[in-house]
Design goal:
Elements lengths: L1 H20 L16 E3 L34 E10 L5 E8 L1 E2 L2 E5 L11 E7 L2 E2 L9 E2 L3 E15 L13 E6 L1
Antiparallel strand pairs: 1-2, 2-9, 3-8, 3-10, 4-5, 6-7, 6-9
């Protein structure tokens, strides 16, 4: 009788511990693919790129949320994908970096001597504003020796009541997901 009671108590305690320990289930799903496309940022195989935003006068901003020169002022940049395998039919790009004061739709400027304040850099793709840590819209890929051009845009956006002049640089890394 002692063995049966002990086993029953042990099973009951294990069941109670299991019920309290788990609040939900997360299933991780994905695929391992044969190969990825070759990333080429400058047409010569580079994996680092400078996007020249130019000089923007601080009076070009008209208030919080305004962009320098309006929506037409975005600077276009491309990520080129070459030698894509047939299994890679689409690509999405996710940009990571330091967000402006917790706003993941704007990239913070790099801390450096005399850095501009009150502005950040907003990225967008063909669907609109592209938040950091979020995949872009899907770009259709052509396999083989073709070059697939993925268009993106960057622009300054006013985030505070006052904008001060100074260097306005930022850094983002990116990941291509197939």
């Amino acid at each position: 009788m002692k063995k049966i009671v002990t086993a029953f108590v042990s099973l009951t305690m294990m069941s109670a511990a299991s019920a309290v320990a788990a609040d939900g289930t997360i299933n991780f799903k994905g695929n391992i693919i044969d190969a990825a496309c070759t990333v080429d940022l400058d047409g010569a195989g580079a994996t680092t790129m400078d996007v020249v935003m130019g000089n923007v006068h601080k009076t070009a901003f008209t208030g919080v949320g305004s962009t320098a020169g309006g929506s037409a002022s975005a600077t276009k940049f491309n990520i080129l994908l070459k030698d894509c395998p047939a299994t890679a039919t689409t690509a999405k790009v996710k940009f990571d970096g330091i967000a402006y004061s917790g706003d993941n739709t704007v990239l913070a400027l790099t801390e450096e001597a005399g850095v501009a304040t009150g502005v950040g850099i907003q990225l967008s793709d063909k669907s609109g504003v592209l938040p950091l840590f979020t995949e872009s819209a899907a770009y259709t890929l052509t396999a083989g020796n073709n070059t697939n051009t993925l268009d993106f845009y960057a622009r300054y956006i006013q985030k505070a009541a006052t904008v001060t002049a100074g260097p306005a640089n930022a850094v983002a890394t990116f990941t291509v997901n197939y």
